[in-house]
Amino acid sequence: MKLLSQLRTSSFQLALLYMVVFATSVFLLLAFIYWRTAGFMTAQTDETIEAEIAGLAEQYRGRGVNGLITIIRERVTRDPNAKSIYLLTTDDFLKLAGNIDSWPEGARSESGWINFTLDESVGWTGPKRLARARIFEVQGGLRLLVGRDVDELTNLKRVIETAINWGMGITLALALLGGFLMSRSTTRRIEVINNTSRRIMNGHLSLRIPTRGTEDDFDQLAENLNQMLDRIVYLMEGIRHVSDSIAHDLRTPLTRLRNQLESTLITVDDEEARDHVGQAVAEADQLLATFNALLRIARLETRGNAADMKVVSLDELVSDACELYEAVAEDKEQSFEQSVEQGVMIEGDRDLLFQMVSNLIDNAIKYTPEHGRIGVAVRREGTDAIFEVQDSGIGIPDDEKDQVFQRFYRVGKSRSLPGNGLGLSLVSAVAEIHQGRIILTDTYPGDETPGLTVTIRMPAYTGETKRIKATQAELPASNASSRPTADAPET
Length: 491
Description:
Heat Shock Protein 90, histidine kinase, Helix Hairpins, ATP-binding, ATP binding, single chain, HisK_dim/P_sf, five-stranded antiparallel beta sheet, alpha+beta, kinase, 12 strands, Beta-Lactamase
């Protein structure tokens, strides 16, 4: 799979394109060399034959037919290896002289050139060889064939063709290897940037892309990205500091105002006035809950509460939360089902985990109508500990599913219900601290009320699990690794 991913990279495809261009250039060059070399050798052979024909014609003009026959026999005698091929016959193909006995079969060009095989069919007694000759008629009705053994030339062409084929194969192999190595080197640099970017997107904003100090294009890109990240973190910290400061500064006077209203509620005798003051106290409580949630999320994101990690029995923790909320579900006449596997252990902060579990169960009860169904489950799958909450509630439209972990975001269907839109932001922050991944799916896909199933997968404790350190990189406001695949309500 790693090799396949390597082959899909743009750097390898670019190297492959270069390889094709380079191989095409090499092929054209070798083809030109072969064409020139083979053509030169063929032309040289034809010139030799033409020279022999010219010599024989001169002998014929000077000495007649007998002189022609004599010179052919002399040349055959002087050439024991039969490099030259001769055949002189009458018009009825009766042999007069030569080192073959009959006319060869083969395609003959308009100029009289013919390529044929020296074998038994032409009266050749030696090993089978290739030959090229020219045929023409001599005055007096004689027929003359003059040729050359081109077997060595043909073998040489084959050697050149083989060399070209091997050269092309080696060129392609080396180009492919070079492209692979080049793309691998480039991909490694890009993969470092991608891996670091993914970790940054998952909340480790303190990480930076490493450089090699070579000042090449990748180093310049990494430096620019790092500067951009520094600026983003600076701006985010500024915004977070302002919002946290506002929440912290307003909480104290709001607490005093709430206490004064509560004191006033005790002293007021008029029933209508008591109702108004009571509503003011409830509104103040809601504001205080919002500010406390904001400050709690801020502390989680800076790892303020992540230092005390211990082995926690997730099944016992969830059972305790279910016992607390079971009565609330009974008040709404909801079916509250539990499926808790025993002995599911994780490493984490029990208080934070309890708050996360409580938030999700509370959401399920809040957004599920009367006579609905709530299901809570704990189980272990491989190396993961699974906590899951199902409901038959209102669900969330698909176009809002990517936004449910944002602060203060509330689904349109739930805006009329009490809440501040911070519940799932808190759940996301706690899950991230515990290396958890949130998966959201519809409980009843396609129904008018699809409900929601919230699944949180966290590493199970095996006795070798490394403690989560409080010095890990800080978290963003939303858990990027916990993107929902369906919809969820929020507090």
